[in-house]
Design goal:
- With about 140 residues, this protein is mainly α.
- It has one domain.
- About 85% of the residues lie in helices and about 0% in strands.
- The protein has 3 helices and no strands.
- It has helices at about 5-45, 45-85, 90-130.
- The longest helix has about 45 residues, at about 90-130.
- The chain is elongated.
């Protein structure tokens, strides 16, 4: 195995920083959506609004975990740099490997959250589509 240098774990810094920015923006938009959906649900307790709220709860849970694993990956990268600095090459390689696994988990959770977000939009669009369908009076 090739020796890790201080440069290797620093490559994760920019990637994780951008990911964390995206995750934070996503979280903030969810916070606004929660407030909007709550008000809407208090006025009209429709099944569509309830489905949106349940969907949003899953998305918030995933986003929280995406952030936790992203931060964990960043922290382990810093620990890796420290271990390289003090000359603990084998331990630094293992810790860096764990940091990469955390990043993989974070990205996998992102994919799952994107799928759920798409489902949420499908629920919203189906509600709009049903509202705009003409009433067929011939069937009555």
């Amino acid at each position: 195995m090739e020796e890790l240098t201080l440069i290797t774990p620093t490559f994760l810094f920019s990637a994780i920083s951008l990911l964390m920015l995206a995750y934070t923006n996503r979280f903030l938009s969810y916070a606004q959506l929660v407030r909007t959906l709550k008000d809407k649900y208090m006025e009209d307790k429709s099944a569509i609004t309830k489905a949106q709220i349940l969907n949003l709860r899953k998305r918030l849970y995933l986003t929280r975990n995406m952030q936790l694993f992203g931060v964990g990956s960043l922290m382990l990268s810093v620990v890796t740099m420290f271990l390289i600095y003090i000359g603990s090459q084998l331990l630094s390689a293992w810790i860096f490997g764990i940091a990469l696994v955390f990043l993989i988990i974070s990205l996998s959770l992102t994919v799952a959250e994107i799928r759920i977000s798409a489902k949420s939009l499908e629920i919203y669009l189906s509600d709009m589509q049903h509202a705009n369908e003409p009433v067929d009076t011939a069937k009555k």
